[in-house]
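Why should sequence recovery work at all? Because a backbone constrains its sequence more than one might expect. Tight turns favour small or flexible residues, buried strands favour hydrophobic ones, and helices have their own preferences. The token representation captures these environments compactly. In the example below, the structure is given first.
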């Protein structure tokens, strides 16, 4: 894969993820893994990109009035400290890639099989379940170097706590705070970034900015979901069943 192709794909990964309310770390990690970036550089690099893209996405969905602070607080309160702890844990490279490949299947399942929850079907959240969910997802997020939105989103929809755009808003905020916490944990163990970090940020930020705006206001969400799910399924196959 040439450098030019890498940046084109990075742009579209950021664009598609932001359009559906995600930061894109799982996509960035899959892309970097296929490109041969070392895992110790992949994790912090993906989380930094997450910060820019998820914040951009959150702002757009927040302005649209889709954010539920009442649900977000118990989830984030548990996830932040455990994401920090997870960031301190190192996983062997081959195992890391297999876990990442499995995690990529979460958004694939969500985008292909989870229909949008109608407002009439929404239920009040259970605080205990929200705290436990946030803690488990936060720990896993810190370990792998993702924000956790790809895991949290299908859970919120399955429990009927949020509709599609409310899910996007909460996931974007969740991804941002977990990315900060995960990076904090990694810093305690020593951290290194890819030498092309600045260019990664520029490309991902532009893609995320455009995707968040069009996703929250213009685009058909179903079309975006199916395109992103197909791309992630291919990446998951590569990581799980071939020598990435």
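From this structural description, the recovered sequence reads:
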């Amino acid at each position: 894969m040439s450098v030019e192709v890498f940046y084109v794909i990075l742009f579209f990964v950021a664009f598609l993820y932001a359009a559906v309310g995600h930061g894109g770390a799982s996509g960035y990690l899959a892309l970097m893994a296929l490109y041969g970036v070392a895992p110790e550089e992949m994790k912090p690099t993906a989380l930094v990109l997450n910060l820019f893209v998820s914040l951009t996405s959150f702002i757009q969905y927040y302005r649209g009035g889709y954010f539920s602070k009442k649900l977000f607080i118990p989830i984030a309160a548990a996830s932040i400290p455990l994401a920090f702890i997870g960031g301190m844990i190192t996983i062997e490279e081959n195992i890391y890639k297999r876990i990442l490949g499995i995690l990529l299947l979460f958004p694939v399942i969500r985008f292909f099989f989870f229909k949008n929850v109608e407002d009439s079907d929404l239920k009040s959240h259970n605080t205990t379940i929200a705290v436990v969910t946030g803690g488990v997802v936060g720990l896993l997020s810190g370990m792998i170097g993702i924000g956790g939105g790809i895991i949290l989103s299908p859970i919120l929809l399955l429990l009927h706590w949020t509709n599609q755009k409310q899910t996007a808003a909460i996931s974007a905020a969740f991804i941002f705070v977990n990315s900060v916490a995960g990076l904090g944990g990694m810093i305690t163990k020593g951290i290194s970034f890819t030498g092309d970090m600045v260019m990664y940020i520029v490309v991902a930020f532009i893609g995320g900015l455009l995707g968040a705006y069009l996703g929250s206001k213009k685009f058909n969400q179903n079309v975006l979901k199916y395109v992103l799910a197909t791309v992630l399924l291919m990446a998951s196959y590569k990581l799980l069943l071939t020598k990435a």
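A few observations help interpret the result. The CA atoms of residues 54 and 123 lie 26 Å apart.
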